Amino acid sequence: MKTILPTLPTQFGIPIVIVQHIGARSDGEWFRILEKLCNIKIKEAEEKEEIKSGMVYVAPPNYHLLIEKDKTFSFSIGERVNFSRPSIDVLFETASEVYEDKLIGVILTGANSDGAQGLKKLRKRRFGGCSRSFNR
């Protein structure tokens, strides 16, 4: 993220939503530091907040972040998915229902297999797609 987000212009034309596997008691300092490096605004997503272009939204700790049909966020304290809450799978699955083929999913790194099922759903929705893994 530290490499990609600072390259985006202030008027970036699409919203970005980040799920970061962090502790439930995180104070969000990691994304405040990231925000200082970026041109684009970064904030923690809020319940019922309208999703807007040119913003980077971060899932709050210990809540699944869902995207509703009216393109707002909602939170869930549901069971952990692949040992994770927030879960990338939950975000990708709900986002694919709303944005359909106008959605790009990116997993930079992850814990366990969180994100794999959601990415499969995105690929299926888009009638194709690709995924890449780079090992160092």
From TrEMBL:
The keyword Repressor does not apply. Its EC number is 3.1.1.61. GO terms for cellular component: cytoplasm. InterPro entries: CheB_C (IPR035909), Sig_transdc_resp-reg_Me-estase (IPR000673). Keywords: Hydrolase. Pfam families: CheB_methylest (PF01339). This is protein-glutamate methylesterase. It comes from Leptospira interrogans str. 2006001854. The gene is cheB.
